[in-house]
């Protein structure tokens, strides 16, 4: 007698098909069994490695219907070997292939120095171009109230300012408090210099050294780490270690996102 196999599951009980999504680096998904949410950093035969916003790594099997993408069930599959189009920008935003840069807004974001501007460009550059936001650096904030007055912020020209070492009781905090326009927002991170806002693990060092008072901080960092005392070369080394938002401390990430939201708020 010939044997037949049949699927006797009623159609209404069969699971609905779900989309297959390539596990491209940077894709943010959630593993529903554990609730672990992170960006894909590696996909190998049968497994995918995710990294959450705290830098923790977890390896999961590539099982059917095994992940959530923006709340929807998907099946992750290994990417093809062809050219890969990024699905996320360096800031973690959804990439918009082919998007043109928007004409620059009247609003601006000011940062203290060139290194701050280069770091913001490295991580948020794609987002800023789509939003039409220009970032400029000031070479210090001692004259910030006068600079803000000269800019003349208004409802159609908001101004955001990112300040280094903005902690209570400092000179920086007193300067920031002197800016009172409702169309200007001054925020900052707690680090002495924006160098410290890069995670030591990304740079390949155990931690940022403490530099004695009275000593140039950047030169002291180079000396303590055994690097050549060339701060320009040191900064390039640090900047080259930054590939996405995952390489930055949350204290900086949150403040830059806050400034972008403020400057691009509806008129």
UniProtKB/TrEMBL annotation:
DUF3097 domain segment(s): 20-79, 108-264
Protein name: DUF3097 domain-containing protein
InterPro entries assigned: DUF3097_C, DUF3097_N
